[in-house]
Structure formats: C-alpha cells, structure tokens
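Quick one:
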Amino acid sequence: MKIDVMTLFPDMFRAVLNESILGRAQQKGLLDFSYWQIRDYTVNKQNQVDDYPFGGGQGMIMNAQPILDCFRAVCAARGQRPYLIYLSPQGKTLTQQRARELAQMPGFCLLCGHYEGIDQRVIDAAVDEEISIGDYVLTGGELPAMVLIDCVARMIPGVLSEEACFTDESHFHSLLEYPQYTRPAVYEGMAVPEVLLSGHHARIAAWRREQSLLCTLRKRPELLESAELTAADKAFLQRQKTEE
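Output:
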C-alpha cells in the first residue's frame, strides 16, 4: 500500500512509523510511505504557510496555495490523483469498518492541518473525505494521521503474522475482545480460567465468544446493535441481562 502524507512535521512520522511492525512491513515492501513538507511549496520569501482569518477570530489559518500545490506534486509523482483524506475534528469518526474499507484501497493521501485549520477552499477543491479520531481537538493532524495509518496498515496482508491477529480483536466484528491471559497460570492468588488450560478448542472458542459478548454488554452495549448475533448469542445476552 502506498500512503502519502502532507504535513509540516514529517519527522514525527519517521520517528513512529519506522519502528516495530510497520517498520518491518516497509522493509518487506508491504507499505510505502512518502512524506511531503507543505512548507516546501510556499511562494513567499518567509516560507509562511498561514495567515490571519478573514472576518477576525483567534489563531491562524493554513493557506490554500501551498497545500494545493503540494497535492499537485503528489499527483504528479504518482501519475494519478490519489484519494485525499483530511484529518479533521469535523470529519466522521474513524471506525474499524471504515479502516477495513480503506485497507482495500491501493493507497491514499493524508492531509495534516495545523493551527486553527486550513482554508476551506482546499476542502472544496481537493479533499475527498474528512476523518476524525474522536470528539476532541488536537494541535494538529499528525497524531490522528498516525492513528489512521496504524489502524489501516495492520490489516494489509502480511503486515501481521496471521489474519487472526486482527480479525479476533475488539471492534472487528462490532464486539469487544475476550479477556486474555499468559503465564504463569496463577499469579498472586489469581488463576487463569480453567477452560483456557483444558486444550479443548471448541470449549475455549465458546468461552471466548461468551466473554466477548459479556464484555461488550457491560462496557459498550451500543455496539451490540450492529453486531451479527446468532440465536445462541441472543439467548446468552438475555440470560446475562436477567441475572444482572
């Protein structure tokens, strides 16, 4: 997957994305990141990328010119126009489902804003989608872009050792993940559930399914509305609601 990132702080990405799983995925050729310094496309002597907002107000707004010229350079380098995502608190909240959809694409381009935002004409002229990682405001789009990249990239075939590494996780099927344990079997008087030590794969799978349903019911019950539930799942949840 090819991912271009337009930002004022490209070194932030290198420090994070060159490490661990994503770093190894780049070495294997599964991921290809290109970082574009928006400031390189300014046309003023000061390399200024922002200005005061028309109509007054707090803070500074990023100019349309360097952003759009930077995006044109991305398009030229690629030989085609990539899908452009602007990381914005006004965008739709990133979900596992949307990440899955983005993982099916050959690549995309991310735009990281800064200061009080970007000139609306950039959004009108070039942005295909706005995405938020939550209902709060950060100082820039770099951290949200890294969150999106991590969320999407780990679903690219070969990035993780096995597909089950992400298909069994929280939110993938609109359910939270079941509790996990490792050695020792008993620690400070707390024991791992016996079923996990039984070696009985069917019983373990059934226990994990029930625990996943239980965690979702107790922590994020709204997720159950979109989850694919079997008759047995529904019966189990009804029993839990009655008991609690």
